[in-house]
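Table S7 (text form). Paired inputs.
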Amino acid sequence: MVDREVLDRRLARIEELLTRLRQLAGIQREEYLRDPGLQAQAERWLQLCAESVLEVAAHVIADSGLRTPTTHRESFRILAESGVLEEALARQMERWAGLRNVLCICTSTSITTSCSTSCKTTSDRCRRLCRRWCDP
């Protein structure tokens, strides 16, 4: 069974990071593009958010006794196959795993400016599903 306390801590971290990202999304585009510090903050917070989501997936997979994924993307495929995630959300989360990989390898302002809209949708759906995992 998924440890509710561990899951709640990880979800709180995701919410904290998404709050910071939403604050950055309120900054004028021109200001954001002129300020490498703001770009670095956005990239780092996106990376940490994606990694936190991957930690939640790994925790659920391990505690549920599901097969071990060979890639980050596969984590969400396993959760979908086992009925833990809806297929559409699994595909969206697979893209988050890809984003994490990109952010770990390179930096791109176009990545950070295009991701702000998906943060809220992902957060709401992830939170709802994580609560369902904890309540058998």
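Next pair, protein 2 of 2.
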Amino acid sequence: MKNDLVSILVPTYNQEKMIPRCIESVLNQTYNTWELIIIDDASRDSTPDIVWRYAKVEKRIKLISNSENNGMHGLYKNYNKALEVATGEYIAILEGDDFWHPEKLERQVAELKSNKLAVLCYSNIEVINNNNKKLGSSRLHWKNSKSILNNDPVGIKYFHFLTLENRVPSITILVRRNVLEEIGGFQKIDKIGTTDYPTLFYLIGKGPFCFIKKPLAFYVIHGGNYSLNKMKQFQRGFIELTNKNKNEFKEKWAALGVNVDRLSLVQQKILNKKILIDECKKKFHDKNILHRFNAYFQYLKLRAGLQINKYSLLKKPYRYIRL
């Protein structure tokens, strides 16, 4: 393992139009001690050829090509395969269809060097479309207290997972390699095509986080985003993940004020209301004004009920926590 080196892991599949911008954003980093490991999941387009052309010019870029497609359910395998090749002290995650701010690595490495106890660093993101039009930003500092942003006390960020949310944008993560290896590398949820959520779940218990308010990554919405299309599936995966670990984490969650006995009930209520909220959003486009009006007020009512459900998970009000 090489000190100060950042190993950037990038899974990609059929992203010939987007992978150049992703790679260029790494080449433009103000922090130069990095290696870029791109693992191509048997793309059928010219993605591997494009990466190979960059790798011939820039020796810090490595290409791993799968002979068979692992798919989203095998994403954790791709990340772990890249992790085996990585030699850095730090591990950064980047997707082939997204890209970074030039100061991303410099800012985050400095944060982890100054905070020796922190296990990872993350930030806000900017959300844009294919035409580079800004659609918004995550603004996590508006929605969460400083305590929960920094996972301090350690474990406080479990509240997000227990209420079926994840507010750590994966493409902004910089994690200490030794801590990632302590939890067994990148994790999975059975039958759910995600690895960042379960991996973060176990990292939360390992130490405090560092949060940077400035957006250091750009998340591109292009219609083919797997995570957007499968959000309800992910939330059911959260329930499975918490149930699987309930006995092991029961004392830790109880110490944080969680009413563990109500956990399954509250999670199911939250999931049902999230589904109804999505149905209301679809009705906003109804041509009938009265239907749209009713849908809007039903939406507000459900949102209010969702907040009550979240806080009913706690044994007593924690005023410093904004879920």
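Strands lie at 2-12, 34-40, 61-65, 88-93, 99-100, 120-129, 134-137, 174-176, 209-221.
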